[in-house]
Amino acid sequence: MKRIIIAIVFVLAIAAWFLLDLGQYLTLDMLKAQQRQLGAFYQAKPLAVIAVFFIGYVTLTALSVPGAAIMTLAAGALFGVVTGTVLVSFASSIGATLAFLASRYVLRDGVQARFGGRLKPVNEGIARDGAFYLFSLRLVPVFPFFAVNLLLGLTPIRTWTFYWVSQIGMLLGTVVYVNAGTQLARINSLGDVASPGLIGSFAALAALPWIPRWIMGMIRARRIYARWKHPRRFDRNMVVIGAGAAGLVSSLIAATVKARVTLVEANKMGGDCLNYGCVPSKALIKSARVAHAIRHADSYGLAQTTPQFHFRAVMARIHAVIAAIEPHDSVERYTGLGVHVLNGHARIIDPWTVEITRDDGNVEQLTTRAIVIAAGAEPAIPALPGLDGSGYLTSDTLWERFAQLDELPRRIAVLGGGPIGCELSQAFARLGAQVFQIELGPRIMPREDDDVSDLARAALTASGVTVLTDHEARRIEHRDGQYHIVLHHGGHDIELPYDALIVAVGRKPRLSGYGLEDIGIETDRTVVTDEYLATIYPNIFAAGDVAGPYQLTHVAAHQAWYASVNALFGQFRKFKADYRVIPWTTFIDPEVARVGLNEREARERGIAHEVTVYPMHELDRAIAESATQGFVKVLTPPGKDRILGVTIVGDHAGELLAEYVLAMKHGLGLNKILGTIHTYPTMAEANKFAAGEWKKKHAPQTLLRLVERYHTWRRG
Ligand SMILES: Cc1cc2nc3c(=O)[nH]c(=O)nc-3n(C[C@H](O)[C@H](O)[C@H](O)COP(=O)(O)OP(=O)(O)OC[C@H]3O[C@@H](n4cnc5c(N)ncnc54)[C@H](O)[C@@H]3O)c2cc1C
Question: Is 565's pLDDT higher than 80?
C-alpha cells in the first residue's frame, strides 16, 4: 500500500509539473531575463535564496523532471563557482539518491521477480563492478542522469555507494556547468556548454577507471608467466587433455576453425560417457525395462511370465551398444576431421608445453598456444573401514566385471541415493537381483523436490529395490567367506550380507597426476576457472566434469565450445559460459527430467513463484500406455507465463522436457506452448495441458462474467 501511495505522489507531482508547465520558468532565456532580479533577491536574503534553491534543486532531481542543467547554470550566475558548485553537488546527489530510492522501493522487487533470471548477469556485474559502472555513467553527460538514477535503483547496488560515487562522478560536470553559469551572458544555448569536444573528454575520463583494471590484468598475467620460458614458436594452437565429451568437442571445434590441435587420451576414446557412464547404463536400463514389461505383461492383457535370459547375453548387448557407438568417437573419425590424436598420458610441464607419455613408452613434448584440460571425473570412494580389498565395484569397473559373470549377483548393495545409484538399483532389481540401496540422507535424489523423491522411491520399491534412507554405512566386514556391509540406523547397527557392492556416492574431478599441482593451477573441488573457463593462466582452460559445476555430458560439450573459442580467439572476444538453461534427466522408470528451478530452490532463493501441476493420469496417451505415474510441474512468476523451471516425471520425461528447454532458452512463455498444436495422442501433449492448467487459473474472470451476461442477453 505504502508503495502505491509513494508511486501516486510521484506521478501526481510529475503530472503537475507538466500540466502547470513549470518548465517554462527553467529556460535559458528566462534565466537570462531574470538574472538581475534574482541577484537582487540573493543580495537581500542570501540564506533564504540558498535554501529555496537547494530544496528546489533536490525536488527537481528527485522527481526526475527536466531543468537541472538550467538550475546549475543559475547556481553559477547567482552564487559564483565555489558556493554554486558546493550547492549543486550536494543537491544533485541528494536528489538523485531520492529518485534512486523511490525507484528501488516502488519498482525493484517487481522488476527483479519478473526478470530475475535475465537480470542475473547484470546483478552480478553490479555486485562486482557497480561503482565503476556508475562512475563511468556519471562522467559522460550523454547518459541522462534521471535514467541512471531510476535504473540503478532496480539493481542491488548499495545506497551509500550510489550516493558517494554519484557525487564524485558528477563533480567535474557540475564545475563545468556552474563555471559556465558565471559567464551567462555569453551562452546562447546549452550546446555552448557541452561541446562535442567536452563530451569527448568526459568519455575519455569515463574510461579511466577501467584502464588500471586492464593494466592490473596485464601485470597479473606477466607475473603468473614470469617464471616460465616463453617458447619462440609453437607446435600447436591447442592441446586438449582427455577425449571425453568435453575434449572431443573442444578438439573438433579447433580443427573446424583450422587450428592445429592435438587431442591426448590416456584410456579409451569417448571417455566415461561412452565407456562407463551414459551409454552402458542406458543400454542396461533398456534390457531391464523389457524384463520388467515381460514380468508385468498382464498389465497389457498378455499372459504374465518370468523373463528368461542369460545375464552374459545382457552384458554382451551392453558392450555391443558401446562398440556400435565407438566409431563416432574413434581416433579414425577424429583424425579424418583434422584432429591430431595421440594415445598416451598427458602432463602439463609449463603453461605452453604438454609432455605425452605414449602407450609404447615413448615420450614427446608439444609446445602450444593454449591448453584445454578435459580430464573428467572418477568415482568418489568413501573412507569406509574394510572397503579396500573388498572387491567393491564402481561405474568404472562394473561393466567389465559383470561381463565375466553367467549370473547376476543375487544380493547387490548399492551405496548412494543419487541419479547413478537410483538408475543402477532399479535396473539390477528388474533383472532379478535383490537390491539394497543405501542412502545417508533422508531421501533419494535429494536435488529434486520432495514429491519427486517420493515418486522415485515408490517406483524403485515397486521394482523390488529396498530403499534404505537415513542409513549410514559404517564398515565392511568379511566373515566365513561372506561380505557384510554394516549400516547404522536409528541408533543400531545392521549387518547386510551382499554378493556385490556398487559404490555410487558421487564423482570427483581428476585433479592430480598431470601437472596441475606442479605449475600451480588452482583447484578446489574442481579446477578453478573464471566465467570464461580460464584457469589462473589465461591460456589454459578447463571444461567438462573437471571444471564442474555440473557433471553431465551435454554440459561438458556446451562448456567445450566456450573453452575452445575463448582459447583460440579470446584476444579478440571472450564469451562467458552460459548456464542459464541446463536440463538433465535421471533415467529411472518413470524418468525424472528437470530444467531451471524446482520448488525447493525457488523457496531457498526467495524467488516468488506459482506452481502448476498437470498429472499424467489425466493424459490419454499415458492411460493407453498404462504409464500414468508422474506429472508435469511448471514454476512461473506470480501472474506471469514466463517459465522459471519445469520438472517432469513420467514415461519419456527426458524427451518431453526438450520443448520447455527450447521455450526457456528463447523466452517463450506458457501461452506460446498452449498456442502450439501437439499431435494427439502423444505424451508431449502433457506439456500443452500443463500450460492449459496455468491458463485456467489465470482466466480473466471479470471479462468472462461480462461475456456470460452478453450471451444471456442474446438469448433474450
Ligand atoms: C554411470 C554413469 C551414468 C551417467 N549417465 C549420464 C547421463 O545419462 N547423461 C549425462 O549427461 N551424463 C551422464 N553421466 C555423466 C557423464 O558421463 C560425464 O558428465 C561426462 O562423461 C563428462 O565428460 P568429460 O569430457 O568431462 O570427462 P570424461 O568423459 O571423464 O573424459 C575425460 C577423459 O580424460 C582422460 N584423461 C584424464 N587425464 C588424462 C591425462 N592426463 N592424459 C590423457 N587423458 C586423460 C580420461 O581417460 C577420460 O577418458 C553418467 C556418468 C556415469 C558414471
Answer: yes
Give the length of the chain. Answer: 716
Q: How far, in Å, from the CA of 454 to the mean position of ligand 1?
A: 29
Q: Which residues line ligand 1 (CB under 6 A)?
A: 241-247, 264-267, 271-273, 276-278, 281, 345-346, 374-377, 395, 420, 510, 514, 544-546, 551-554, 556, 587
Q: Three-class SS of residue 28?
A: helix
d(CA 550, ligand 1 centre) in Å: 12
Is the pLDDT score of 224 beyond 80?
A: yes
Nearest to 574, CA basis, from 582, 585, 560, 564? 564
- Alpha helices of 488-639 — where are they, by DSSP H? 516-519, 553-569, 599-604, 620-624
What is the Å distance from ligand 1's center to 398 Cα? 15
Does residue 218 register a pLDDT over 90? no
CA gap 630, 422 in Å, rounded: 17
Q: How confident is the model at residue 679 (pLDDT cuts 50, 70, 90)?
A: very high
3-state secondary structure of 280: helix
Query: 410 pairs with which residues across the strands?
Result: none
C-alpha neighbours within 13 Å on the C-beta side of residue 621: 14
Query: Kind of pairing, strands 492-498 and 482-489?
Result: antiparallel
Q: Is the dihedral of CA 681, 685, 686, 690 positive or negative?
A: negative
The pLDDT of residue 12? 82
- Ligand 1, atom 31: nearest CA belongs to which residue? 244
Taking the centre of ligand 1 as the mean of its atom positions, its distance from the CA of residue 272, in whole angstroms, is 4
Q: What local confidence, expressed as pLDDT, does residue 36 receive? A: 84
3-state secondary structure of 513: coil
Q: H-helix or E-strand containing 237? A: strand 236-241
Alpha carbons within 13 angstroms on the beta-carbon side of residue 49 total 17
Give the residue with greater pLDDT, 433 vs 4.
Answer: 433
**Atom 35 of ligand 1, nearest CA residue:** 242
Residue 476 backbone dihedrals phi, psi, to 5 degrees: -110, 135
CA-nearest of 176, 186, 195 to 35 is 186
Atom of ligand 1 nearest to the CA of 547: 26
376 CA to centre of ligand 1 in angstroms? 5
Nearest CA to ligand 1 atom 50: 277
Q: How far from chain centre, in Å, is Cα 281?
A: 27
Query: Are 545 and 538 contacting, i.e. CB atoms less than 8 angstroms apart?
Result: no
Buried b (16+ CB within 10 A) or exposed e, 333-351: bbeeebbbbbbbbbbbbbb
**How many angstroms separate the alpha carbon of residue 326 from the centre of ligand 1?**
14
